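Budget justification, computational time. The allocation requested in the original proposal was used primarily to generate structure tokens for proteins on the priority list. As evidence of use, we reproduce two of the resulting records. The first is shown immediately below.
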Amino acid sequence: MFKSDADLFAFAKTKLCVPAVCDILDHLGFRHQAMHQRLRPLLPDPKNCGFAGRAPSEFVFCAG
């Protein structure tokens, strides 16, 4: 359907409606797949799209 990831992301940024996608995921049984509504974008342009991944991290406590 899409020739590249760039084409897929361009389609997602311009054509997809977030509430509709969330409703579809809920209907398919994939609950809690969207971020909570309290979370806001860090950048002024909220239309960022791409693959998400996790990075390893650890808690570091530094006392005085």
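The second record produced under the same allocation is shown here.
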Amino acid sequence: MTPGPGSPVEPGLIQKKLRLLMELRRAGIGDTRVLGAIEKIAREKFVAASFEDQAYENVALPIGNGQTVSQPYVVALMTEKLELGERHNVLEIGTGSGYQTAVLATLCRRVFSIERHRGLLREAERRFEELRLRNIVCRFGDGTKGWPEQRHTIE
């Protein structure tokens, strides 16, 4: 495994992450760029400390405000289906903990992410800064209204 932004250093987490990556491959995730993005982003940074030991289980975990961080298979499948290139921009509705956002940011030019829970958004932005993910633009607001200023740049 290659170190990257937020890569785990604890051997136990590395083993759990490897198991998860193998599970995703067995489940049909074949895009090596997507698998590489999931390997690179430390999911344990996007869950509460009390759930860190479960960060690499293939399950959704609570993040507050009645929301969850999606299970890794769902993140991988949605990301793979997008067929992102390095020049694409993505509009994400619901930043949540920021895990999906971070995975997307490793694969495309820019992610525009909107979140309706101010506390979740602040925490996600803190994580992006900590992980030095500079191609994410966040906004607090209602995602059902979209992001009108960026409509022409989002593919």
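A brief technical remark on that second record: The two ends are 31 Å apart (CA to CA).
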